[in-house]
Design brief:
Alpha/beta knot; alpha/beta; seven-stranded parallel sheet; globular; about 170 residues
Length: about 170
């Protein structure tokens, strides 16, 4: 596993997290911790998502907000456009959309890769969903159809790492 340290930091292998209109600064601080734990390249804050410096975010991030590069965009559609202007990148939405989503383990992941995580109540901007290369989700096996965005981010990001190191994907 130590051979993966820094894996997502080069431009051709980067892993970018886009946060679309998250409301809770505590949730955003938690995203920093997850991003740092998986070695993500950066976080892009969109819309009214709290961004550093922010006292509640800083408290939850416990220093990782100073370790993971971040920037802002007016909205998630602009963030996707900004990333694509910088070079080729696969962009996936993380949302449970019947007929469109595939479970996170049903696909391989290209590099570089950006994941868009949306507001728990509103989801991802419809305009952004029109621009992404695909939609992945965690299967919802219970009666509820959603889980906390932080929990979803952790599960999906670690599945991408597992996919990266599994046979046949470690060279992508």
């Amino acid at each position: 596993m130590s051979s993966l340290k820094g894996y997502f930091t080069t431009m051709d292998k980067r892993l970018v997290i886009i946060l679309d209109r998250l409301r809770s600064a505590h949730n955003v601080g938690n995203r920093f911790r997850i991003a740092e734990a998986v070695g993500a390249s950066e976080i892009i804050f969109c819309g009214y998502t709290p961004a550093p410096p922010h006292p509640k975010l800083e408290k939850t991030a416990v220093g990782t907000d100073k370790m993971v590069p971040s920037r802002t965009a007016p909205d998630s559609t602009a963030a996707v456009r900004m990333l694509r202007d910088e070079g080729p990148i696969e962009v996936l939405a993380v949302d449970n959309i019947p007929g469109r989503s595939v479970t996170v383990w049903e696909r391989s992941y290209a590099r570089p890769l950006a994941l868009v995580f949306g507001n728990e109540a509103l989801g991802i901007l419809p305009e952004t969903l029109e621009t992404v290369d695909g939609v992945v989700a965690l299967p919802m096996l219970g009666q509820k159809t959603s889980i906390n965005v932080g929990n979803a981010a952790a599960a999906i990001l670690y599945e991408i790492i597992r996919n990266t190191v599994s046979e046949g994907n470690s060279k992508k």
